[in-house]
Amino acid sequence: LLMAQKQVQEQAQKMRQAFIIAKSGAWSMEANIDGTDATLIFSDEYYALLGTTAEEQGGYKMSIQNWTEKFLVPEDAPEVLAQFVDVLKNEEFNLVSEFRLRKINGEIINYQTNLKTKHYPTEGTIRGEGIAQDITERKQLEAEREQRNKELKEAFKIAKMASWRIESEGVDTPLDKIVC
Questions:
Q1: Phi-psi region of 129 (alpha: psi -120 to 50; beta: other; left: phi over 0)
Q2: CB-based contacts of 91: which residues, under 8 Å, 6+ apart?
Q3: Residue 12 has pLDDT above 90, yes or no
């Protein structure tokens, strides 16, 4: 029995480390079917994404209103809250969403969450489990790539030339059509 407990503890530690490496954290939610009393429950790793701890936030549970006020970038609130309404309307719901959060130190991060919810009508509740990930680096790289493509397109336009690439099917394609 002690050996099994030790293995479980080791696996839990490995899981926590994997969350940290992936800049991610687990979370869950529970709400009444009418949407009232919506509570979010965050893991230590989730709180770490936001530069805080469960202890600093008064525990692992937080109302959706409190979370929105503390962490959600105000410009993203309407879309995120509309998605929450969709969760309430559907018996089962799978959501992948990207938006911005404000860490405790004020830094803005790009965030992606995957959530799966289910209604439990006999209990009058909706429950869901999710995973959150800081995707700020990915968003920065995407923005840089988009900027380079714009600059390259503009350079081709100014030079009034196009570069060609032979594709595997043998069709010639102007490079400015590939990067645009």
A1: beta
A2: 118, 119
A3: no
What is the average per-residue pLDDT within 122-146? Answer: 91
Helix H, strand E, coil C: the string for 56-82 is CCCCCEEEHHHHHHHHECHHHHHHHHH
Token representation of residue 28: 């869950």
Rg (CA), the chain: 22
Rounded mean pLDDT of 36-41?
89
Q: What's the chain's average pLDDT?
A: 86
pLDDT at 174 over 60: no
**SS3 assignment for 83-99:** HHHHHHHCCEEEEEEEE
Name residue 12's amino acid. A
The tokens for 98 are 């990207």
Interatomic CA distance for residues 97 and 41, integer angstroms:
18
User: Which DSSP string do the residues of 15-30 spell out, in sequence order?
Assistant: HHHHHHHTTEEEEEEE
Q: Which residue type, as a one-letter code, is found at position 29?
A: M
The predicted pLDDT at position 86 comes to 85
d(CA 66, CA 50) in angstroms, rounded, equals: 14
131: nearest Cα among 95, 104, 84: 95
What is the C-alpha to C-alpha distance for residues 54 and 165, in angstroms, rounded to an integer? 54
Single out the residue of 107, 130, 108, 103 nearest to residue 118, CA to CA: 130
